[in-house]
Automatic annotation (TrEMBL), chains A, B, C, D:
GO cellular component terms, A-Z: cytosol
Cited InterPro entries: Aldolase_TIM, DapA-like
Alphabetized UniProt keyword annotations: Lyase
Organism (species): Xylophilus rhododendri
Record: residues binding pyruvate: 208
Keyword Lyase: yes
Protein name in the entry: Dihydrodipicolinate synthase family protein
Cited SMART domains: DHDPS
Membership in a protein family: Belongs to the DapA family.
GO molecular function: 4-hydroxy-tetrahydrodipicolinate synthase activity
Entry keyword annotation includes Ribonucleoprotein: no
Length: 300, 300, 300, 300
């Protein structure tokens, strides 16, 4: 059961070679890097993982490689798709490979809460009893789910065991959700962890986010769960300038991949096209931000 | 009480002079034209009335002139506004002038049903006990209201006495609404009356629409309410090519004003800028469509 | 070369069995039905063909069956996809099977004309020299292309040999396109052919649309190209009430499939879920509309 | 001429009393507060100033009070409006009162660059030779302007003397704009100044943003223009946790008003309804963030 999920779930990048081919070997080094910096689990094929640029066969190969290397740590696979048929096909395949569950966001174009419920009823009729992370990411999907709607989804569909909450403001929504949910589910938060320590204070079970320095995510999580609130904030604040820099949608993903490459986690920083490419000016800013980060960490 | 509304409500044009000034004198001829072709009431300052191009002072002057000339027939005033303060101000002013009620569509940007209810709670707290037409026109507002949501709004806010239904398909929604509403309200339909006889068969109380030939609207309504279903359809079908031609959003409004000008209802066909202007090719099509309409009417 | 395309291209339905499985046998009867009612070519896997509900393997099987049965008439395959990788894969597969070309609409989410050009540059770099129909269907994609933008796309990408124009108003846009395009391409129109005879008068090369009565599409096209303008309009007008009824987005597709089933073109009217299902009230309206159509045709 | 604008332009809040009435007296204390913390100019009636909740008369009164108290510092007035008539009316009124210029964002609903140019042509034909700040804030307006489009607007309309750039990523767009603009205009940046020092490095002329601690904005600006890049970043980073907390759209405005109230800048923190209200949990977070800010400033 994923309802007891807690800890640090890393939203993984998908490594590509310079020519745009998937780089499966880098998946191994990447997941080892994440694990050595405190990851408790992984979420693959998310928005930041460039999932929408893959063919179904590539998506399956990437997910399979992550699962194989995860060493038993849970792997959640993003299966959101405009086609329920494709969603169901990938779900069956990755569950066979050993995924811990799937993550589903409602598709762009759902217009009312009535349509939202009909959609998930249809999905769960197709995929059956699969542990599911409901992703609430309206700025990406264009589908806005109120707290009462999320509570009703959780009430009606036992498959929903985790909520990935990345509406904004997340903090006030988390408080309302914790007051309103009828049964215990895990709540993890995304938005590149931009509000992580405050979200911990509001009652989440950990981050589900990507960052070039996952040791910050795990560090803040450990400190906060040990009751060291001020220390958790101080650690977070040290990384915030870089975190905010990476929090610039797909362009921020390009930055993150460049820093992961510098740290040896992946062989090549390229994003699959169409996607942003970094300029020398961008690289100079990364240098500056990393230098300042090192200075703050040394001073602390 | 508007809950017993039935009949033919004409969505009025706002007449402008060639230089873009409001043409109040043409309001008198226009409303006389509508009345002589079977209008039972009027809806002014709607989308097709170019309301969004007026200053508050102009809007008030236009509404006041319509009310003064309506000869006691009910006038509904569209007061939808991104600013609740402006909505409330115009509502108070037109109710003082003798409007029968106001029409309100939810503003662009409302994202969940929770926000929808909060919005109308705030509006009705401000405007008080004013008879209100709820406008369901998602293609214009971007706000999609499900049947359960509309029923809940009607349940909670007694001010809602009429629903102007112009979602698509309207016909299936009307059937669901009639099955689901807890109390009797009037339902009138818009979308330029493109589905009027079918909507009559689904249980509406009449059209709330604009057309250059309002005698079609009143004719279909009378025939249908007399049980002459096939005749109602036949009359409607005769006008459908022209109706469909006018059903091309703001460009269709330009067509409608040109035909109304030809029929003597208004002095000038101009729309206030920014807005479409007709070309000689467009005028040639209007000539063709009117010629064919006359032929069909003569044959019938 | 598709630049000389002219005639009647039918946008095909995808037949499903009652349990939602693809019904390949009905593809044969369907394409024979279309051909016997005047089709000159076919467009498969469009929005009205429920393409978004298929897996990639199903899409390929459906397209292949249509191509095999088309008897040498050109088949255009819709390949629009949020993933360029999937778009390129399907394009290569269907061109191998003998498709005449592909149809591509810009994906939801493109925000500026700069992004639009970058998108098509990327697509054509991937798929190479494949004859392409550019689909301008903003109400479905959310991407609005101005006349200058379309002209620039046509100028820069020789692969674009046909424009499927289904913005609204289509008629004024067609006139501007014909005045502005630097080179000759074919223009066909969609929107369920709601403005077909007027669009013919504006200079299109034929319809690319679906309708339960394709004999209307071919009849209007033949009459108009023979210079019989008034007769073309008269024929069109006879069918307009039913055409308008089918022009209600996905619900209209359900109606169309029901009528195609009654006419023996497909075995089962079901849409794949999620999708609308017809009620007895809906069926009664279809009966009424077909009865009135027969009466008008008999009178003519 | 505003083309030489440089320095710190504060986006002002609009003070309200607890009952929702405008609090004009607090405008005086607020502008004095801003001035004493380094403001060089002001932008009033922006999105963060709750402009959309005011009546035209209230908007004029608020703008006039700000202008009267500004002591000769330039005041830019936001006049964006769905109605060009209202935009023109407010523009004429505030220019008469001594505004330095107006700020205009394209209205929601513009769909192509062709429509964008037609819109501004129409606006400038109405308002004439008024110094104008073009606001590029797509996340609020839904209108996305590419760099080539902005350059063309600047080329064609000499009234555009300043660009308020708040697309994301802003930094890469600023670099492209500085390379592409044909004539010198000022570029100021918004987005609550979340990327201020990096934007300074990309060539902007200062911030146009709101913050409860305007001394950060002016401090970063002064340090950066003195060539103290690392010091500018260090100062900025100290405030970043609070800045990010205030950068949560309208809820962030509620936070900002609460902090401004605590600092004596305004009498009451209330937002006009509909708008967010802070809870005790929110207040506790503000306490925490302010305490940590003080600690960092003391340590520096």
């Amino acid at each position: 059961m994923l309802t007891d999920t807690r800890g640090v779930y890393i939203v993984t990048q998908t490594p590509f070679a310079a020519d745009g081919a998937t780089d499966l070997a880098s998946i191994d080094t990447l997941i080892d890097f994440y694990s050595s910096h405190g990851a408790d689990g992984f979420t693959v094929l998310g928005v930041a993982g460039e999932a929408a640029k893959l063919t179904p066969a590539e998506a399956l190969a990437v997910a399979g490689r992550f699962i194989a290397r995860a060493g038993g740590k849970p792997v959640i696979v993003g299966v959101s798709n405009a086609s329920v048929a494709q969603l169901a096909e990938l779900t069956a395949q990755v569950m066979d490979l050993g995924a811990a569950g799937v993550m589903i966001a409602p598709p762009t174009g759902l217009k009312t809460e009535e349509e939202l419920f009909a959609y998930f009823a249809g999905v769960f009729a197709r995929i059956g009893d699969v542990p599911t992370v409901l992703q609430d990411f309206p700025f990406s999907t264009g589908v806005w789910m109120s707290v009462p709607s999320i509570c009703r989804l959780v009430r009606e569909f036992p498959q929903i065991q985790v909520l990935k909450e990345e509406d904004l403001p997340s903090i006030t929504k988390i408080t309302k959700l914790r007051e309103s949910l009828d049964r215990r589910i895990a709540i993890l938060t995304g938005n590149n962890a931009m509000f992580l320590p405050l979200e911990m204070g509001r009652g989440i079970d950990g981050p589900m986010a990507g960052f070039s320095h996952p040791e910050m995510l795990s560090g803040v999580y450990r400190l906060y769960t040990q009751g060291k609130v001020e220390e958790a904030h101080a650690l977070f604040d040290s990384y915030l300038p870089l975190l905010s820099y990476e929090n610039q949608s797909q362009w921020g993903v390009a930055v993150r991949k460049e820093v992961l490459r510098r740290r040896g986690a992946i062989a090549c920083a390229a994003m699959r096209q169409p996607g942003p490419r970094l300029t020398p000016v961008d690289i100079g800013e990364i240098d500056l931000l990393l230098r300042q980060l090192q200075r703050r960490l040394a001073a602390a």
